[in-house]
Structure formats: C-alpha cells, structure tokens
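Our preliminary data section would be incomplete without showing what the modeling component actually yields. Below, a chain of 561 amino acids is followed by its predicted structure, encoded as tokens that our downstream tools consume directly.
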Amino acid sequence: MSKQIIYNPEAHLKMMHGINSVARAAIVTMGNAGPAVMIQHRTDGIMPVFTRDGVTVARSINFDDRITDLGGRMLRDVAGAVSRQVGDGTTTAIVLAQKLAQESLKSVAAGFHPLQLKKGLDLALTLVEKHLLDTAVTGVTADWIEKIAAVATKDEPGVGRLLAKALEALGSEGQLTFQLGNGRNDELDIVEGIHYEQGYLSPYFVTDTTRAEAVLDNPYILLYDREIHDMMDLIPILEEVKAQGRSLLVIADNVVEKALTGLLLNHVRGIFKVAAVKPSGFGDKRIDRLKDLALLTGGKAILDDYSSPKLEYVTLEMLGQAQRVVVTEGTTTIIGAKGDMHAAKQLIKTLRAQADLILAKKPGQGSATGNRHDFGELEERIALLSGKTGVFSVGGMADFEIKERLVRIENAYMSAKAALEEGVLPGGGTALYRCIKIIDTVIAENTEQQQGITIMKLALAAPLKNLTRNAGLNPEAVIAKLNAENDDHVTVDMQSHRYGNFLEIGIIDPVKVMRLALRNAVSVVTTLITTETVIMDVPDLSIMDGYSPEWAAATREDPRS
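Predicted structure:
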C-alpha cells in the first residue's frame, strides 16, 4: 500500500484545525450556564442525541481529511481518558488542551524548540499538581457531595442527595450501576452484589451498544475452572437454561476460539442469551475466588479434580443464580446473588482472622513480600464477599432526555468519588487560575523552557474565561474581582453572579478531576508539538464505488447489490 507523507507546517495547521473545530463545538457545554448540543443520529428516523457532555460532543465529530481528523482525535482521546478516570472534567480538559496546543504551536512556529517547550510544560505541570494536592480541602461531607453532584449535573434537583446516599451505603470502593428508568423520577436501589475486574471475552456479547454493556436479567451462572474447547459440551446445559426462559453467564478459565465462536453465533442470532467472562484472581488463588462466587450465587464450582463432573453432565442445580448481571469491557457486576449470605458472613470472619494473624507477625516471621501478597489476597476476597451494589434508575419525560441525564448523573457520581480520594477546591475554573501565581516566580533553565511555563499560565486561565463567557459575563471583570480577594477559597457562582467561599455557595470541584484534566491535556499537546512528520496509508477507495453510507443507514440496504 502506498504512503502519504505530510510535513510541517502543513501537518500542524491541519491538526490544529481539527482541534479548534472539536473544541468550538464542545466548549459551549461548559458550566451550569452552558447550552446543549444536538447530534444527529447515524440512523435515519431515530431521535437525535441531546447532550451537555463535552466528551459526547467530541466523540461525535469526524472529518473527511485524515490529518484534520487526527487533530480532532487528540481532543477525543484526552476527553475520553478523563471521562474514564473521573467522569467529570471532560470539557475542562478540552479547553486546556486547545489553549496549550494553540500557544505551543505558535511558539514552535516562532522558533522555540519543541522538546524544550515540553520540559517547561512538564515542570509547570508538576508544580501545579503539587499545589492542588497540598491546598486541597479534605474530609468531604455528604453536604459537599450534594453540591459537587449539583455542579457536575448542571444543577439537577435531588440527584446529589441520592448520590450522597449511595456513597454512604457503598463507600468509595462500592459499585453503583446506572440504567434507564421507567418513570419520571430517579430511583436508587442498594442491593447485595458482587463486583470484580474482568470483562467480557468478546464485544459481540454486548446487548446495550450505547453503554457497551452485556446485560443479563435473571441469569444462571456456570462456574468452571477449566478451558472450554468444544461448544457441544455446553449444549446440554444451554438447552436446559433456554427451557427455563433464562440467560446464562459463563465464568470459565477461558473459552477458546472454536467454542467462543459458537457461543457468539447463537447469542447474536438470539438462540441463547449468554455472556462469557473469566473469574476473579489469578493462578492458584483463582480456585478460592470461584468457591467464593459459588457460595455467593448458590452454585457449585466445577473444578479440575475427580470430584467435579464433566461439562456435558452439569445440571441446573449446580448453577448459581442472580437477579441481574452487567458486564463491561473490564468489569463484571453480579446483582442480587441468590447464595447463602449467612455462610458468606462466616467466611468473612474467618478470612479477617487470617488477615489479622498476618498483620500480627513480627519482622522476620516469613517472607515480607509473601506476607504482603497473602494479606492483599485476603483483603480482595473479603471485599468480593462483602460488597454491596447499587442500581440508580434515571428518570425523565422522554427517552432522549433520560439518556442525556444518565450520562451527566454517572459523571457526577464518579466526580464525587474523586472528591473523596483527593479532596476539593474552588470550582468554576478558579482553583486552576490561582495556580498561576505558583509558577509565576519559577525560573527555568533557559528561555525556551520559560516559554513553556508561560504557555501553562495562559492555559490555566482558559477554563475560567470560557465559563464566564458561557454565562454571559465579562471575563476581565470577573478576574479583577477574584484578584481583589485575599482569600483563595473565594469563587463565583456563574448563574447567580454571586461571589463567596466555595463551600458556602456550592461551587466545588474535586482536585483529582482538575489534576487529571490538566495532566491529560499536557500529555496530548506535548505529543502534538514534538511531531514533525505524519506518514499515512493511502486507502484504496475503489472498493467503495457505488456505496452510499447515507443510503445504507436510511434503508439498511447496500446500494451496490
């Protein structure tokens, strides 16, 4: 395949065009006063997507020119990374990345060396992150969580109270899943649940494409400590499960290609509703995890020993059961497991006693590394056995409204959890703006690194300025008012135009959200400015002759046939 080579400055100009185009569309959603964006659905006749979420806007934008799209993809990636890590702060990350990219490329064009600019930006980033962590207000209360949720959800009434209740019941390590509700009001249901870090073996198991989740209602659960090589071994138990009108979650050491293909074909065709995942844990410890899951779900762990039957002889009585299972790319959540909870509590006591014995060991008793490993394993098993799971049903008047609210509420929950981890600071872009004075007195090794620090100062002011513009305020007047205050905890409520202590007026941002938004923005921009040449394949478009994606989406037919 032939290659296309694009050199600077053309490459930088095109990528910057993509960055500016995506940023311009997403930045309008920033803040409580920010308007919404309507995105046409890719299929004709389906309601458009209505959103006030920056990452949703960014992900919906693509460009015909591949270099321009590469620039747009940089913003999509930075917003997506922040969304996965902390939920909120995606538009802030876009604002920071755009400003850093604009000023950095100007400096490169003026003759500054990109690697020296990178060193200056990295130095400023380190100082800003340290300042944010050092000045964070910790000891987050339920009242603060309500205010944080209000900011993240654009002042959704009642949501903060429910999220605070969920965090109180589940803790920062608990698992809260979100689903589309059936009424106008939001509902929170805390149930016994199991959550661990293993996702589906294939994305073709996904049943909810919008959220990339495989959801099984009222499933049976097969716990199998071996590899499944032949689909035919599963047919007897699958037929029994289908006769009950239920679905099946296969938790196995692995499902190899031939058997996995058979499962997927039957699942996609609707013959069996099934999903396959790996169990929690690794190596020899996995057997204990399977036994724990069997205890929690009321099933039997089919182990690789003489006492366990072959797969084709497994019966319904050996399967676990649950109310619901939600599997994502990286996690499995079993809700309402129907096992022996009393026995699980007794096992927790036993495991806790074993953990206490390890902690009580004196130096020199056993391997220090081995002790830490064994203690960590016991802690993970205890968390698995004692975990609760919450289900948040998002309400609304119409389907498109519920979907739009669901994204914002889920982001608000992740933002509240981030606040519990690292504390909070004034919101509204004020905390980042006040970091300027921390790096203002820094003297770098040379003028080029000093230019990188100057660029960081310009970027730190960008979120505050964009928020004020979206609220219809004068950025310079707001900045002058904040500069006149001697208290770093003073910020502004963009809706009521009121100044005051951030805890009192409820304009609160988690430190982790701001820190990761800035870190991801710097990372993507330093990659951009240190790129001198772009090499891309030239695609063979002849295979698309006569094909129209608009026609295919509207009619579900290929016009070439």
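The first strand starts at residue 3 and ends at 7. DSSP finds 20 helices and 19 strands in the chain. Preliminary results of this kind motivate Aim 1 of the renewal.
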